[in-house]
C-alpha cells in the first residue's frame, strides 16, 4: 500500500477544513437570505378577486385556475387557465369576465366572458385596457395611465372601488363600448350609478378630492419634507403631514421610517401607518420589524386626522371606520375599534404571504394557497 506523505496529509486536511468552512458560510448566507424573505407584502395594485351578491371569485395564480364559489364554499366554477393566465376578474350577474392585459405593445387588453358553467361566451380585444370592474348590470373599463415623468404605463390601484373610462351592459358585451362623459356638474349617470369625474381623466364612484387618486402607498421620513414626503399629489402631501404631526417624533427611535397604506371611502380617507427603525426595501415585512402601527381617519375638507387605534409589533394592513386589520405573529387579527375586542380571522401556514386588498375582502396568497378572507363585516 502506498503511503501518503505528511505534506500531502496536511494538504488534504486543509482542503477538508476549507470545504467545511465554505459549507458553513454558504449555510449561514442561505439561512440569512431565507430569513430575510420571511414576512408579508401588502398590495392594492392587483385585482385577483371579485364578489357579487351570490358568488366569490379568485384568480389562483399558483395553480393557474379561476375558482368561483358560493358563500357556503360550494364550488360553482373551476376554470383551468394554464397557458392563458388572466390578470383581473369581475363577477357579473349571469356571467363573469377575465382580463388578459398587454396583448400587444399598444396596451391592448383581451376580455373573455364566461357563464357560471365555465363555458366561454364572448371575447373582445381593444386598445388601452388596463382594468375592469362590474357594478349593477354594467362592465366598466379603465385605461392605462402614463404621465410625462413616468417610465411605465400603470393603472390606478383601488382597494375600495374602481375607475373607468368606458362601459357596456353585461348582455351587450363585445358590442361597442360607450364613453363616460361628464355633465355640467362633472358627473355621469350609468343606470342608477352616480359616477364622478376626476382630474386625472377617469370616472369613479367616489367624489373628487382635489388631486387625490383614491389610494396612496408610500414610505418616508420626517426629513423628506422638502420632497413632500415622496407624495405624487398635493392631497397626499397634506395627508402625510397630518400623520407626522399627529403621531409626532418617537423618542425610542432616532430616525423613524413611516410606511402608509390608505384609501378613499366617500369623502373620507382611511389609512394605516407602520413605523420601522430601519428601512426595509423591496422585501416582505415581519410583524417584529414594526415598532408601532397606527390606523387613522382623515377628513380632507376639514384637514383633520383622527388616530383610531394602535398596536405594537404588528403589521397594519387596512382599516375602516369600525375595524383595524393587522398581522400579529402568524395570525390575522380584526380589532373592533369601538370595543377593542380582537378576533383571529385567519391563521397563516406559510412564512411568506402577500395580501391583495379589494373591497371587503383580503386575498392571502402564500406559495400554493389562495385564501379569501372577509375583513369588513359591518
Explain how this protein is built:
- This protein is mainly β and 378 residues long.
- Helices cover 12% and strands 44% of the residues.
- It has helices at 6-36, 234-247, and strands spanning 39-43, 49-51, 55-60, 65-70, 75-80, 88-91, 95-100, 109-115, 120-126, 131-135, 138-142, 163-164, 166-169, 178-179, 187-190, 193-198, 202-204, 215-220, 257-265, 268-276, 290-299, 304-312, 315-319, 323-328, 331-336, 342-347, 352-358, 361-366, 369-374.
- The protein has a five-stranded antiparallel β-sheet with strand order 18-19-20-21-22. It has a four-stranded mixed β-sheet with strand order 1-27-28-29, with no helix packed on it.
- It starts with 5 loop residues before the first helix and ends with a strand.
- Mean pLDDT is 87; it is low at 22-35.
